[in-house]
Amino acid sequence: MPSVFSLVIAGELPGRFVYRDDRVVAFLSIAPLTPGHTLVVPVSEVDDWTTLDPALWAHVTSVAALVGRAVRKAFDAPRAGLVIAGFEVPHAHVHVFPAWGLADFDFANVRHDPPAAELDAAQSRILAALE
């Protein structure tokens, strides 16, 4: 059975994409740590980031850095957080989000039902920052 991320990538579930190429996508998290929390995901369904092909892992981190610069700019944040957790969905991914302090890294603080308008606005801000 495909992962939920594979379903988002295939368009079978909705996603607010901010980046896409043939190997990696980036879309907003539906349970954000902070507004603008984005997931950078390889298109190929690999469970654990440590087993990704090194060239693909390098591309994932390159896209994560691009998105990190964009979320910092879009939300006027002093830092971009990067977390590799890997327990929520069995599909390798990295979390990139605007961060103002260490408390922003605490997954106990995710917002489980952010308003759709807030996610749409975050997507627009990140897309504008990427231009």
TrEMBL record:
Keyword Hydrolase among record annotations: yes
Secretion signal, residue range per the UniProt entry: none
Specify the HIT domain's residue ranges: 4-107
Motif Histidine triad motif in this chain: where?
Answer: 91-95
Q: Which InterPro entries match?
A: Histidine_triad_HIT, HIT-like, HIT-like_sf
State whether keyword Hydrolase applies: yes
GO BP annotations listed: nucleotide metabolic process
Listed A to Z, the keywords are:
Hydrolase
GO MF annotation, one? hydrolase activity
The protein's name is Diadenosine tetraphosphate (Ap4A) hydrolase
Query: What species was this sequence derived from?
Result: Asanoa hainanensis
Give the classification, highest ranks: Bacteria, Bacillati, Actinomycetota, Actinomycetes, Micromonosporales
